[in-house]
Structure formats: structure tokens, C-alpha cells
UniProtKB/TrEMBL annotation:
The lineage of its organism: Bacteria, Pseudomonadati, Bacteroidota, Flavobacteriia, Flavobacteriales. It comes from the Bacteria. Gene3D superfamilies: NADH Oxidase. The keyword rRNA-binding does not apply. It holds the Pfam family Nitroreductase. Belongs to the nitroreductase family. SUPFAM superfamilies: FMN-dependent nitroreductase-like. One of its GO terms (molecular function) is oxidoreductase activity. This is NAD(P)H-dependent oxidoreductase. Signal peptide: none annotated. It comes from Epilithonimonas arachidiradicis. The keyword Oxidoreductase applies. Keywords: Flavoprotein, FMN, Oxidoreductase. Its cofactor is FMN. InterPro entries: Nitroreductase, Nitroreductase-like.
Amino acid sequence: MSLLEDLNWRYATKKMNGQAVPQDKVDYIVEAARLAPSSSGLQPYRLFVISNKELLEKIQPIAFDQAQITDGSHLLVWAAWDGYSHNSISEVFEKTTSERGIPKETMDDYKTRLWGMYEPLGNEWHATHAAKQAYISFGLAIAAAAEQKVDATPMEGFNNQALDELLGFAEKGLKSVVILPLGYREESGDWLLNLKKYRTPKDEFVTEIK
């Protein structure tokens, strides 16, 4: 199937049947998330893949008791850096130059310009910018799940602070941004399954400027 057919197939699954998603499919979705583009290649976020049932039961009330948390197979949690620093940017660039086999000084001028732009913008801007990068990864994971015929439910409806505390994110310099349960639809109990997909018509959504 084409990507467009896969995206037409998917929807925000409301009821999952508890069936486990095969590990190779989870790995595929996670790898798509890892390969996502990010501003300056910094990847200022981390992905947590949770399948521990006891932990998922603790997360469910934090996510307003949404059943997909525990009825699903895995929960993906994107956590963004809580801010940028000269050191965090330098560490990424040093790893990049090492992997590419080029002198680490190669990116020094760019690093200096980048930090010169970021530093005065403050931590609130930093955290928001990092979260935006996480959403790019999140979007690709949703598309990859659709390609693998794995159901996924995008969720912003959870208590970020409580989830951060439960998973110890503050100590890691992270803040939770968005979560994605993976699983398989329960066709007999999902009210959204048979409703027609609606998106804004192309002639309203797209403006072509030639």
C-alpha cells in the first residue's frame, strides 16, 4: 500500500484489544522516530518505549484514565530537553563529526553562531523549540505505525508534571511532551472505527502561490 492509503487507513484508535505488537514492528516504528529530521540535527529529545504492565497501570490515571494506555501493547513517550546549553550542543556536534570522520573543529563556527542565537532566547523558548522537534519524530512514528498496520492513538491529554515525576525526567534534564499508545483496534468496542474520516478539503487546506 502507498503512504496515502496507509494514512487513510489509520485513525485515533479509541479501543484496543490487548494483542501484543510484534517486536519487529515496534522496532520499525521506533527507528522511524529516531531517523526523523530535527533542527541542526540536535535531536533535543529522547524516546521511551514502555511495555511494563505495572508501570502502564500507574501511567493510566496520569493520562486521565484513557484505556488505550493499558489495553495497548506499548506506550511511546517523547521527552524533550528542558533547555539548550553550550555543552549539550557541543556534545552532539562532537559525536557527529566523530561519526563522519572529520575534525571536530569543522563545526565550531556553526556551533558558535547557533549558541549565539539560542542563548539570549531563554529557557522557555528552548523548551518549546525542543518540543517542536520531538513532534516531528512523533509524526513519523505515527506514519510508520500506519505502514505496519499497527494502531496508534496520539495523546497530549496527560499530566506532564506527574508523568515527569513518575519517570524521573527532571533528573535527566527532560520534560514529557506527547505520548503514543501502540496496539490493535477492538473492532466491536471502538465507536470511531466505522465513522468516515474527515479532513479539511484540499481546496480549503492548500493555497498555491505560483
